[in-house]
Each structure stands twice: as structure tokens, then as C-alpha cells.
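Example with several molecule types.
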Amino acid sequence: MRSRTIASWLTASLLAVGGLAGCSPSGTPDPTSSPTTSPVAVNTTLPTEPVQLTIAYCDAHPVEDLIDGFTALHPNVTFDKQYEDCGNFSTDVINRLTSDSAPDLVQYVDSAIQTVAPAGHVLDLAPYLAAYGWESKFPASELAQLQLSPDGKVHGVGAQYGIPGGASFTGVFYNKTLLRQAGVEAPPRTLQEFQIALKAVKNAGLTPIALGSLDDGGIHLWGGLLTSLFGVTSAQDWVNGRPGSTIDLAGAVEATAELADWARQGYFPASANGTKEDDARAQFAQGQAVFTVDGSWAVGTVRQGLGDQVGFFSFPGRSSADQASGQGFTAGFAISARSAKADVAAAFLDYLASAEAARISVGLGMLPVNIDTAPAPDPGVASDLRQAYAQAVQDSGIVTFYDHATVTMHTTLTQGLQAVIAGQLEPADFIASVQADWEASKG
Amino acid sequence: MRADRPRSAAKAGLAPSGRSAKPVGRPGPGRRRQWSGLWFVLPALLLYGGLILYPAARTINLSLWRWDGVNQATWRGWANYVDVALDPILRGSILHAGLLIVFFSLIPVGLGLVWASLLTRRRIRGLAWFRLVFFLPQILPLVAVGVIWRWALAPQGLINQVLGWFGLDQGRAWLGEWDYALIAIGLIGAWVQSGLCMMLFMAGCGRIDRELYEAVRLDGAGPWREFWAVTWPGLRSEVGLALTVTVIAALASFDIVFVTTNGSPGHRTDVPGLLIYQRLVAGDLGHAAALAVVLSGLVLLAALATSRLSRSGEER
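Resulting C-alpha cells for the full complex:
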């Protein structure tokens, strides 16, 4: 009896406190303390006295290399480097940019910026864009990925919240020796040729595609099929969150059905759903599969394992005349709206367009922001990748990673594609669930 | 009736033993409360209020809003709870937690009873060693447990190697298998919790009067009869405790799932704790809080049910 009294008293008091705190959790925004989102006047000349910038980032390379390159040119500018693991970085960026002691610079994380930019925590770089002439220094497609509408829901329009620091690009890596062994002489140029090659490889008793769909691998493979069959423009509009867009169309269902068919044909190892993309990449690098769909970041690993036996091509389209395409996102930087040293931070952003910064990126085996100023990469797979990327830039075929569409899209796609690969979810139902996620966020 | 009253009052430690013995000049305990006692519980009350009650109330409040943690919140009322009830993913996670109770709780309690009765039946050499081995999973951090089992259950892992000795290795990634992933997680949980149950039950067996065993043996009872007549009744409260602890571990599981599958494949291993975390980092605080409230309610219900079970056993 007594315990029941205590329990009911406890419940009642909890409910009472819950009710008392019935005001909006965010409280009323205080207009006097809300940071300004755009500087009044900008200064493009660096001060000569010592200045320290704080920077929060999760990709040690190339961020630290670029910082070193910048401080070598401007010894009076030093950096307080605040490294954070990439797994927690998105939450970390939200917490840091909304705190009173926000860092001057943060590595751009799409989901975090979408959340904090509408509340005015990120500087609109428009004045610097004009002052430095960044529009002619950076590719328009790269800049567009870092633009966001005032409500944070639409990409490619509105304020310029970030400046690109390095590009990424997905496509197909292939093992030249194994492909020839299966009787296929040249890498496929159309989706149909790709299907024929996969069948030939399977018939030769080899594993066609190394796939790690436990995490990102499924998204990258499906993304290749989707861009080819759904089309670059409709895909980009959808990822950008353009009002009225839908993915619930025949091309997307067809792409998903193709993936399901590849799974049924046994083109992936049976363990794909329990394998991480890193591990699938390692399998490919050890010569256990003929193809893998991965990104520019994989170049180092596959080159180390396979040397000049590995090549790269863009995910093929329906016809060889289709525009070259791939998914990617630029690793950029944003400036806090609270930064008192925005002018100095902007000078660092301007440095990212320099030939010196491009040289550093290429030295790390990465894709430079500005391919025009960058030195040529090593021959082999890095050169294949650069060529494919340059072609896609020229064809305006670079689509932002599909999981950037909403903050929950990564989970929706990863888990949904696992079900498709396991043969447990109909392609049309999968696409409908993806669109439902999109509408819940953009609607 | 009247004669009863002093006795029960004294038992409760509230009143002096006799009516006439009431001291003069001091207020009777029934008339005025001694508020000075509050000062002694104040530090604990502040801590409990600040660390448990306030956050709990805040969570209940948050569960009624749509809020990303930064921008203006919008009122949703009970809509988040409706979503928990209707969203197949959220609802599925609660069903998964229910299935995990079998593995985290029922199997370990069953195994623990078997081991404990086997190990206490007669003196066994190296008993301390057995205890240590079976209890080892319990002292490992769950994240380490998850990593170890992720390796063991990988395509080239220990489990497949063992299966390979019998020609059964098909290179499966058990944690990525549509039908087996949740069961695999359940078995990891059973591995962790069994040692705890065994330790609890062995300690309980130690309290049972040896003479009872002798008595049933003299009456000609076999091991089976001995278990039901002596061991089981003697262990009721330990079984209740083990059930409470392990059922809570099943419902509130997070670490093992987060490290091994993260909900894969295709939401087959989603559990409420994992979804709360995922919604939280995705900036969906309202649904995270609503699911947290529902989960807390379930845990509370389970704890009440299991404690009632063991208490009714004691009274019998």
C-alpha cells in the first residue's frame, strides 16, 4: 500500500513539474544576444600583429596540412586546433557553434549547418565572396553545395555558409587483371556493358562486386545506379530539397530493382549486409572481387594493395553519350557568426583556392577544389579518378551524396537498402519510405 | 482491536510503547511532524531532484514538442506518442526488446539455476575457477563484449571456423543475416547475463540449510525432486532479483547493439535505446524523449512485476 502511495505521489509530482515546465523548450530568443549573420564591412588585408584562430575539424588530413601551409605563408597567424572524432563531429559542431565560445572556423558538416544556420549561428560569406572574387576561383557546383536557404531546407540557393576545401567523388574501382581473366577486355562504358561484365565475372567463378552495406557501401552503389537511371538533374533537385521534388518515380524504382536483381544474381558476397565499407574495400584491395563502388578517399588503400592493377571509371549511364556523373561533397569550412576575427578566417578560406593548397591536396592523394590550378596526379588510378572527376565537373554531373538530403536520410537509406539486398523489401516500397523521410523533413 | 494498536505502532517505530508513557512538553508524533529531519535528507533530496527528477520532468516536457535543440520548438502534444505507437520502426524496436527478454533474462535464469544446482550439489575442485570463468563476461565493459563478438560472428570469425569443422561454414556474417542478427545479439546477451545469474543463485544456495537437503535425501528424493522441494523455494528471492536486473538490461539494451549491428540489417535489430540515441543525434528530440518516456514506463512496469513475483514467493 505504501509503495503504491509513493509511486503515485512520484508520478503526480513528475507530471506537475512537466506541466510547470510547459513553456517552449527553446525559450524565447533574445534579439539583443542573437549574433549578426553578416559582417558590415570586410577587410581582405591580413593584420601584421599575431592573431590566433580556433578551428574545429574531424578530418586531420587535409585540414592540418592546409593549416600548416597557411601558417608557413603567414607566420603571425596561429591556430588553436580542436580535433574531434568524425563519428561525433556533427553533434559537436551544433554544440560548439551555438555556444558563447564558438570556434572561429569549423569544418563544414551539412546536417549540423542545416540545423544551426537558420538560428543565425553561421556567417553568411556573401561580402567575402564579392571582396575576394571567390565565384571565379571555385567551381560553381562546389560553391552551390555549401549554399542554404534561410530555413535550412534547400541547398544550392540562399546564403553562402561555407567555402570548399577539398572534393570527393564516387565511382567504380576495378581490378584489371581479374577483369581480363573473366574475358572482359575493356571497362564498361554503359550500364548494359556493366551488366554483361558482371555476368561474365560471375560465370568465371569470381566475386563481381565487393560490397559493405553494413554502413555506407550500399548508398554508394545504389547512388551510382540512381544517378544513371533517375537522371542527374532530378536527383540533384531532390537532394537539394527543392520544393515539390520527388524521388518516387519510375527511374528510382528501376535503379533499386536493379540493385535487388544484382543481389539475387549473387553479384555481392552473401555477407554484404554484415560488412563495413572499409572491410569491403580491403577485400577488393586484396584481389577478392573484380569491382567495388567507392569514393576518391579509397585511392590510397586500393593502390597500396593492387598497384597498377587497379583502375577507376565513373558509374556508367544508360548510353555512353550520357553526361559523366558521380556523387560527391566538398569538404569545406564555415565561419562562426560570433567570430571576432572573421576577416582573418576569411583569408584562410581564400587560401584554399590557391595553387599551393591544391598542391597539398593532390600530394595527399585527394581531389583538389580547383582542378585548373592543381598539378597533375600520379599516373594510374589517381589519374583515372582525376580524369573522371574533371569530366563530371565539365558535364555538371556531380550530385551531392544522397544521404545529405535530410538529417535522418543516412539511416533510412542504409537500413532500407539492407532490406532490399536481403530481398525483404520491394523496390517501390523502399522508394516510398525514402520519399516519406524527405517529406517529413521538408514538408 | 484496541490492544493491537500499540503493538503495531511500536513495530512501525513511530510511537512510544504505551499511551501513558507520553513525555510531557514534547509534541506527540501524531500531531506535528518534525520538519527538522528534512535537513538531514536535504543533500540527498537535492541530488536526487537535480539529477533524476528534474531531468525526468524535462524529458516528459520535451516529449510533447518538436524540437531540434537549436531552433524554435513547435508544440505537438501527444502526437509524438501516437508516432511511437504507429511508426512500425519505433514499435518494432519495442517488440525486439521483448524478444531480447527471452535471451537476456529467461535463458540466463534457466542456465544459472542448472549451473548453480550442479555446482552446489557436491564439493567440486576448482569451484573458484569455475565461478571466475562464468562471471568474467559480467565484469567486461559491454562495448568490449560487443567488439569481441563482432569479430567472433564475422564471416571469417571464430563461430564460422567452428562451424567449418563440421562443414557448415558458409561465410555468413551472422550479424548481417536477416533472420539471425537479433538472435545473435540475444545470444551475446545470454552469454553476459548467465554468469551473473549463476553467481546470485550460488550465493542463494549457500544460505539454504544443509539439513533440508539431508532430509529430502533421507526421504529418498532424487536430484529432480530435491531441486523442486528445496533449491527452488530457497532461491525465490534471488530469482526475482535476477529477473529484475536482467529484464531491465534487455529492455534498456544499447551498448551491445550499437557496437555490433547499429540496428542493421534493415531495422531488424533496432532496440528502443538505439533509436533514442539515433533520434537524438538527428535533432529529433521530441520523438527521442517520447520513446524514452515509453521505455522508462516499460522498465518500471517490468521492475514492479518481477519484484511482486519474488515478494509473493516470500509470503508463501
